[in-house]
Design goal:
This protein is an all-alpha fold. The protein has helices spanning 8-33, 39-65, 69-100. The chain has one domain (19-33, 40-100). α2 (39-65) runs antiparallel to α3 (69-100).
């Protein structure tokens, strides 16, 4: 799954979920601002969706601008690993925050 920009299902989900991204981000902000306590529902979905969009967008940039195969492969591995570590870290942080409530 190092080339998600070449997968039609991944791109289809990217474009479909794009319509949900902004309203979900606004809902996360409203939940945070007014302390509605829907953190365990809203934040993980928002975080996962933003991470997915970031991963696929970065993959498209790598496809467009990094032509040498070795450099392209290294960038894709770094992209996948960094998004996996960051996404897991954010979700773990959200889980720890909700556990304290």
């Amino acid at each position: 799954m190092l080339n998600p920009d070449m997968n039609l299902k991944a791109l289809s989900f990217y474009h479909t979920s794009n319509k949900v991204l902004l309203p979900l981000s606004a809902l996360s902000y409203i939940n945070y601002k007014y302390k509605l306590h829907y953190d365990s529902y809203v934040y993980p979905v928002t975080t996962s969706l933003i991470g997915y969009h970031s991963y696929l967008s970065t993959s498209c940039i790598i496809t467009d601008y990094l032509k040498p195969p070795t450099l392209n492969r290294i960038a894709r591995i770094v992209n996948a690993k960094s998004h996996l570590v960051a996404g897991t870290g954010f979700l773990y942080y959200i889980y720890q925050q909700n556990k304290e409530m």
